[in-house]
C-alpha cells in the first residue's frame, strides 16, 4: 500500500478547504432539492385527493374513511410517511394553496399556454420553486393558521429570515403577526423578527408582548384603572394565555411601605423562564416618563424585599392604552432596572388594511437593503 506523502504546502491546504466547501454546498443544495421535490409531491397528492372527493363519489362524511383506506394501501407499498394524519396534511396543503392560484404562477414562469394539461403544469419539477420552505414549515402553517393573510405573512418572513421550524413555531406562538399589524413602528417589528435568537437565552423584550390584545375584556369607551384591573382578574385565565405560557399569577394590589408612604402594585406575576417577578402597573391613558420613575421605585423595593436568592432581579411592565415610542425610549433606556412599556388593544382594527401596511413596510425594508448592498 503506497504511503501518504506529508505536505505542508499551503496551496494544498487551500485545495482541501475549497473541495470541502464544494462538497458541503453540494450536500446542502441536494437536501434543498430533495425537500422541494418532496413538498411539491405532497401538494400533488393533496390535489388528487381533493379532486377525487369533489368528483361526486366521495362526500365529506366519507373523507375519513377514504384517507384510512388510502393510508393502508400506500403504506403497504411505500412504507411509513403515509399515515391518515399526514395525508390530511397533504389535503389541507392543497386547499391552502389551490391549483388555480398556482397554475397561473407556474404557467407565467414557464411561459406555458392555456392549452397545456394540468399534468404538465403540475409536474413536481415545475412546482419546486413555488414551495421554497421545508415541508415541516408548511405543515405548521396549514395546521396552526386558518387566516390566509397570517399564513402568507409567516411564510414570507420565514423565507426572508431563514427561520427554522422551531423559530417559526415561536413566532406564531408569540402572535408576531398580530403584534406587527397593531404596532405603530412596523419596520422595527419586522427587523426584530429577523434577528436570530439562541433557544437557551431569553430576554424580557422577547417574552413580554407589545401590544397586548385584550379584546376579551369587553370594556366600553369609558373605564377606570380599577375597572381594567377587575376585568383582568375576572378573565384571569384568558389574560394568562395572552401573557404567555410562562407567566404565573402571584397577586393583586400588593402593598408596600417605603418611608412613611404606602403604595400598591396593581398585579404581580412570576415568569418561569426569566426566573423573576414581573410587576405590572396599569394605565388607562398615555405612557409618561413619570410612570417609569414610579415603576423604578417599585422594582427597587421588590428586588430587596420580595426576590429570593436563586431568582433574577424583577422586571417591570407598564401596561398602557397609548405609548409614544420616542418618549418610551428616552424614559426607559439606561435604567438600572428592566422596565418595559406595552400597549393594550381592546378592539382590533381592520386586518386587511393593516396587512397592506405591513406589506408596504416589508417592501420598503427590502428596497433599502438592496440599496445598501449596491
Q: Which short descriptors sum up this protein?
A:
374 residues; alpha/beta; Trna Endonuclease, Chain: A, domain 1; globular
Topology summary:
Blueprint: H1 10-53, H2 63-78, H3 84-96, H4 99-110, H5 118-121, H6 124-127, H7 135-144, H8 148-161, H9 165-173, H10 176-182, H11 186-194, H12 204-207, E1 212-213, H13 225-234, H14 236-243, E2 247-258, E3 261-271, E4 276-286, H15 289-305, E5 315-322, H16 325-332, E6 338-345, H17 351-373
Beta-strand fraction estimate: 5-15%
Q: In DSSP terms, counting alpha (H) and pi (I) runs of 4 or more, how many helices?
A: 17
CATH C-level of the largest domain: Alpha Beta
The quaternary structure here is single chain
How is the main sheet built?
Answer: 6 strands, mixed
Overall helicity: 55-70%
Distance between the first and last residues' Cα:
55 Å
The CATH architecture of the largest domain can be given as 3-Layer(aba) Sandwich
Residue ranges: pLDDT <50 for 5 or more in a row?
A: 110-121
Radius of gyration, in angstroms, nearest whole number? 27 Å
Mean pLDDT: 75
**Main sheet: which strands, in order across?**
1-6-5-4-3-2
Count of DSSP strands: 6
What order do the SSEs take from the amino end to the carboxyl end, as H and E?
HHHHHHHHHHHHEHHEEEHEHEH
Shape: globular
CATH topology of the largest domain: Trna Endonuclease, Chain: A, domain 1
Q: Helix/strand/pairing class, anyone?
A: alpha/beta
- Compute the number of structural domains: 3
Amino acid at each position: 500500500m503506497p504511503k501518504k506523502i506529508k505536505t505542508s504546502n499551503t496551496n494544498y491546504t487551500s485545495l482541501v478547504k475549497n473541495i470541502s466547501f464544494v462538497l458541503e454546498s453540494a450536500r446542502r443544495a441536494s437536501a434543498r432539492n430533495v425537500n422541494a421535490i418532496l413538498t411539491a409531491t405532497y401538494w400533488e397528492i393533496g390535489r388528487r385527493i381533493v379532486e377525487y372527493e369533489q368528483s361526486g363519489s366521495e362526500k365529506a362524511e366519507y373523507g375519513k374513511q377514504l384517507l384510512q383506506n388510502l393510508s393502508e394501501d400506500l403504506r403497504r407499498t411505500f412504507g411509513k410517511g403515509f399515515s391518515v394524519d399526514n395525508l390530511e396534511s397533504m389535503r389541507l396543503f392543497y386547499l391552502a394553496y389551490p391549483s388555480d392560484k398556482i397554475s397561473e404562477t407556474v404557467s407565467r414562469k414557464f411561459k406555458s399556454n392555456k392549452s397545456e394539461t394540468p399534468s404538465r403544469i403540475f409536474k413536481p419539477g415545475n412546482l419546486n420553486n413555488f414551495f421554497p420552505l421545508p415541508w415541516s414549515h408548511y405543515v405548521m402553517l396549514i395546521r396552526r393558521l386558518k387566516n390566509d393573510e397570517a399564513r402568507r405573512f409567516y411564510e414570507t418572513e420565514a423565507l426572508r429570515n431563514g427561520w427554522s421550524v422551531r423559530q417559526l413555531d415561536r413566532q406564531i406562538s408569540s402572535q408576531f403577526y398580530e403584534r406587527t399589524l397593531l404596532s405603530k413602528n412596523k419596520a422595527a417589528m419586522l427587523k426584530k423578527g429577523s434577528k436570530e435568537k439562541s433557544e437557551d437565552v431569553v430576554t424580557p423584550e422577547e417574552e413580554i408582548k407589545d401590544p397586548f390584545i385584550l379584546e376579551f375584556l369587553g370594556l366600553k369607551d369609558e373605564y377606570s384603572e380599577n375597572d381594567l384591573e377587575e376585568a383582568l382578574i375576572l378573565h384571569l385565565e384568558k389574560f394568562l394565555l395572552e401573557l404567555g405560557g410562562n407567566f404565573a399569577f402571584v397577586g393583586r394590589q400588593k402593598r408596600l411601605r417605603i418611608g412613611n408612604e404606602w403604595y400598591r402594585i396593581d398585579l404581580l406575576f412570576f415568569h418561569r423562564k426569566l426566573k423573576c417577578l414581573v410587576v405590572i402597573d396599569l394605565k388607562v391613558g398615555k405612557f409618561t416618563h413619570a410612570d417609569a420613575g414610579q415603576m423604578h421605585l417599585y422594582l427597587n423595593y421588590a428586588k430587596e424585599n420580595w426576590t429570593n436568592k436563586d431568582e433574577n432581579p424583577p422586571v417591570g411592565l407598564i401596561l398602557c392604552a397609548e405609548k409614544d415610542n420616542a418618549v418610551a425610549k428616552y424614559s426607559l433606556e439606561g435604567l438600572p432596572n428592566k422596565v418595559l412599556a406595552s400597549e393594550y388593544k381592546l378592539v382590533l382594527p381592520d386586518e386587511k388594511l393593516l396587512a397592506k401596511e405591513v406589506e408596504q413596510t416589508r417592501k420598503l425594508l427590502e428596497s433599502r437593503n438592496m440599496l445598501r448592498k449596491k
